[in-house]
Write a structure and sequence with these properties.
Layout (H helix, E strand, L loop, with lengths): L6 E2 L17 E5 L11 E5 L6 E6 L5 E10 L4 E7 L5 E7 L4 E5 L8 E5 L4 E8 L2 E7 L6 E7 L2 E12 L4 E8 L2 E8 L5 E6 L7 E7 L4 E15 L3 E11 L6 E3 L6 E3 L3 E10 L4 E7 L5 E6 L5 E6 L7 E5 L2 H7 L17 E3 L6 E5 L4 E7 L5 E6 L5 E3 L6 E9 L3 E8 L1
Antiparallel strand pairs: 1-5, 2-3, 2-26, 3-4, 5-6, 6-7, 7-8, 9-10, 10-11, 11-12, 13-14, 14-15, 15-16, 17-18, 18-19, 19-20, 19-21, 22-23, 23-24, 24-25, 27-28, 28-31, 29-30, 29-32, 32-33
């Protein structure tokens, strides 16, 4: 298979996360025991500000994933990934976040290497290599069926973790190899026609980890700026990683901020662990540093790092995706959706925090159901037909908890500390 790709086995562990109002909602994959080659992955939520993770539910059988072959169905809140089950059968795993259920599609002989989701048309697209030629096509997330839209006979390989989607113009964007040269390529998703194509990465100063910001209509990437004045005999030259904008037509790179977002001899990014929050225009990803991996959030407008979280050497999650449903609905005036209105985040707060006995919920909506989780994901309080705004937490042990309240207007989530 002519790909810049490897199928990777990954191992992770996780804790509980509940998203605060207006904060990023990230999902990924994790495992209960670090190093396990047999345990299935969990669908996991991730707090980009703390690195705290929550195993929401198990995939039941997914033990290996193809790096980059993951996307997110924004319309239906479904996390999508291609991988191998415990019998090493290739399957498409469709994880419904709302219902905590897994649907797998079997008997699929073709595995997309890269998948992306069109926020406007609510469709998934991918690239795959079969019958000695690169294919571009659509992916039916309900059946797993893939349909070739066009073949790309001049493209001999695709760089993993280097595709994104421009939902404004309906363009699939990726980095590929053509005639032994690295090219930045954009395709018209409806026809598969190549719209733009330009050679990039002609020197050691390279771009990668693409993400498209539909608000600013800009293509973002990480740009490796080699510092030729600093050399290590073991690791080579020092690299300053800059946050940059890339011109699709010319390939020109514009550094957004002269302060590096990462710097050192052992720098890089985790393939499949870069995502973009369209609501806050935040570039989020796992970056490798001389001092170990870090989860970083970057303001796309300024290029400034707004959050840095130290991670263990065995990163506890991978293949992260951002839930951009509310943004897509508002921007593209979607009038229909299969998602429950309870999935829309609403504002509010809880107090006192820390709390010893009675916790007050200050939200302008009638509460219908309420749940409280501890840090290992156990539900410790559950209230149905709960129409109050005060909750007795006196019997809870000292520690951190996460609250989820469903209301008529939407979903309220908060973190509190029991003292």
């Amino acid at each position: 298979m002519k790909k810049i790709t490897t199928t990777i086995l990954t191992i992770v562990c996780c804790l509980l996360f509940v998203q605060m109002a207006h904060a990023q909602i990230l999902y990924g994959l994790s495992k209960d025991i670090t190093g396990s080659m047999t345990l299935p992955f969990n669908i996991t939520s991730i707090d980009p500000f703390t690195g705290t993770t929550t195993p929401l539910f198990s995939t039941n059988s997914l033990i290996a994933v193809a790096a980059g072959a993951t996307t997110y169905d924004q319309e239906n809140q479904r996390y999508i990934t291609w991988g191998f089950d415990n019998n090493f059968v290739n399957k498409l795993y469709v994880a419904d976040i709302d219902s905590s259920t897994i649907v797998t599609q079997t008997g699929i002989t073709i595995q997309p290497v890269e998948m992306e989701y069109d926020l406007k048309q609510k469709k998934a697209y991918g690239l795959w290599y079969t019958q000695n030629i690169e294919h571009f096509g659509s992916i039916d997330l309900n059946t797993g069926a893939i349909t070739t839209i066009a073949t790309l006979p001049t493209v001999s390989a695709v760089a993993l973790g280097n595709s994104t989607f421009d939902s404004n113009l309906g363009r699939y964007i990726f980095i590929g190899i053509e005639n032994n040269k690295t090219k930045l390529i954009s395709l018209d998703a409806a026809t598969g026609t190549i719209v733009t194509k330009v050679e990039i990465n002609k020197t050691a100063e390279r771009i990668g980890a693409l993400e498209f910001d539909v608000t600013s209509n800009k293509l973002h990437a990480l740009y490796n700026n080699v510092d030729s004045t600093m050399y290590n005999s073991l690791w080579g030259y020092k690299i300053d990683v800059m946050f940059a904008e890339v011109d699709l037509v010319t390939g020109n790179v514009t550094v957004v901020n002269t302060t590096p977002v990462n710097s050192g001899f052992l720098v890089g990014y985790s393939v499949g662990s870069i995502t973009f929050d369209q609501t806050t225009q935040s570039y989020i990803g796992v970056l490798g540093t001389d001092n170990g991996p870090k989860l970083k959030m970057i303001n796309a407008a300024t290029g400034q790092v707004t959050s840095t979280v130290n991670l263990p050497s065995a990163v506890p999650f991978l293949e992260i995706q951002c839930d951009n449903f509310t943004f897509a609905r508002n921007r593209y005036s979607s009038t229909t959706s299969n998602r429950s209105t309870n999935l829309v985040e609403i504002e509010g707060q809880v107090f006192p925090n820390p709390v010893s006995d009675w916790l007050t919920l200050d939200i302008n909506s009638e509460i219908q159901t309420l749940s409280v989780y501890n840090l290992v994901g156990q539900k410790v309080i559950e209230k149905n037909n709960f129409n109050q705004n005060i909750l007795n937490v006196n019997e809870l042990s000292v520690g951190t908890y996460f609250l989820v309240a469903e209301t008529k207007e939407g979903l309220f989530k908060a973190k509190f500390i029991k003292k």
